[in-house]
Each structure stands twice: as C-alpha cells, then as structure tokens.
Write a structure and sequence with these properties.
The chain is of the alpha/beta class. The protein has one domain: Rossmann fold, CATH 3.40.50. It has 10 helices and 12 strands. The strands form 3 sheets. Strands 6-9-10-3-11-12 form a 6-stranded mixed β-sheet, with helices on both faces. It has a 4-stranded antiparallel β-sheet with strand order 2-1-4-5, covered by helices on one side. It has a two-stranded antiparallel sheet with strand order 7-8. Helix 3 runs parallel beside helix 6 and helix 4 crosses helix 6. The longest helix has 17 residues. The chain is globular and about 50 Å long. The protein starts with a strand and ends with a helix.
C-alpha cells in the first residue's frame, strides 16, 4: 500500500515560491488500479514524480507498506518496488532494447524471454530486440518499450505518466489490453496519469487533481459520470475546482 500524508511540493524562482502540490492525502491500496486526472497544469505529473522519487516533497510523508520512503531518491524507491514510466521516455545511446529489458528484470534472461515482453506491448520482437534505444526509434516505439520494461520489473507499484502520449489509435487499443492484463497478472498497484476516457473506464479508483489539490476521489462508478459531464457539464467543471 502506498500512502501520501499531507504532501506538498514547492518550486522557487527569482520572484517567489510557487506551490505545485498542496497538502495531498492519498491512499493506493494493494493491487488497485488508480487513474489520476484533472486539468493541464494541475500537478498530476508532479505528483507522479514525487511518488517515484524524482522530486522530493517540500513537506509531508510518503509511506510504502508502512515504511517511510520520503527521503529516498529514485534509485532507492526503485529498489523498494516502485517503477516509473516517463511521459517522454529517455533515450540511451549504445544501450540495446535487450540490454534495457535485462536491466529491468535484474538478471540475464534469454533473448526469447525478453522478446515475450516486447510481444506484450505489440512490437515484433525480432525487429526491435537488438536495436539501440536511441533517436532511430519513434516516440510511440519508445513508449511501448518503456512499458515493456515496467512489465518486466513486476513491481509493487507501477506509475505511468500519460502512457497514451505518442501512441497511435491502433496501438492505444492494445495498450488498454496491456494494462488490463497487467492488473490481472502482476498483482501490484498501478497508477496512471491520463485524460483518456478508455483508461479512466478500466480504473478501480479515480482521483481528480486541480490547482495542486485533490478535488475528488472515489470508485470509477462514483466519479466518472460527473467527470464526463453527464449532467450538462456543470459537474465536470465542479470537479476541477478547489473545494
């Protein structure tokens, strides 16, 4: 279980300090599929980076299975069982796709074993397994390879920042199936930052973040109808406002 207690995050510029996250309280249960949504600039991606350890909260606590991991960096969090997939995947010149998957698994698995993870995300393994993770790959290809590495890690908590970015419509349909299968087979928690209705529709829990605060959270059946504006749009706007 992942728990955030009164988590805030500020950044400083020459003029003043800007609060990006404000007193976030959030619980993600074991084997729970959570989608974080809300308006652009509301703090969603910052929240994902704070959970992954890329950013450190200004105040508050982050607990994983009851252990305080607030001060751990991204490497420490990864060792504890948190995976993170960037909105814009990182390129690694000189590192092959096979190398990357073996790093994710943590052992020198066979080529056939690595290829299975690529097949899961809809890539023809023989076309990709020995390619470098560099500029020759498109954004969509990189995104799917990164998702394959998260699958390979099989961690307690997997965080995806807008995984649909750069993915074509055909691949997006398969991406939904990947997340559904991942949820059924890995038995770890999944947190996805997304605006996409099809991703929201497979969530156990939806959390709405606007202006750095949680403005609504609950089961999909409770939150999604209002979020999609089934009452004429007023409720949708209300969810995006601070209470």
């Amino acid at each position: 279980m992942l728990e955030l207690k009164n988590v805030s995050f500020e950044v400083s510029d020459e003029a003043d300090e800007k609060e990006i996250l404000k007193d976030i309280n959030l619980v993600i249960e074991d084997n729970q599929f959570v989608v974080i949504t809300g308006p652009n600039g509301g703090g969603k991606s910052t929240l994902a980076r704070v959970i992954a350890g890329i950013e450190k909260p200004t105040c508050g606590q982050i607990l994983l299975d009851g252990e305080d991991i607030t001060k751990l960096d991204v490497t420490g969090r990864a060792k504890k069982g948190i995976s993170y997939a960037f909105q814009q995947p990182v390129r690694f010149k000189g590192v092959t796709v096979l190398d990357l998957i073996r790093l994710a698994v943590g052992e020198k698995i066979s080529v056939a074993g690595a290829c299975e993870y690529l097949s899961e995300v809809g890539l023809c393994a023989k076309d990709y397994i020995n390619r470098e993770v560099n500029a020759s790959l498109s954004g969509g290809e990189l995104k799917r390879i990164e998702i394959a590495t998260v699958l390979a890690r099989c961690t307690k908590m997997s965080v995806f920042d807008e995984p649909e970015a750069g993915i074509d419509l055909w691949s997006f349909g398969n991406l939904i199936k990947v997340f559904e299968k991942m949820h059924d087979s890995i038995h770890g928690s999944i947190m996805i930052i997304s605006h996409q209705e099809r991703i929201l529709n497979i969530a156990d829990k939806i959390v709405v973040i606007a202006k750095g605060q949680v403005t609504a959270q609950g089961k999909k059946d409770e939150i999604l109808p209002e979020l999609l504006g089934n009452t004429g749009g007023a409720a949708s706007c209300k969810l995006y406002q601070n209470s």
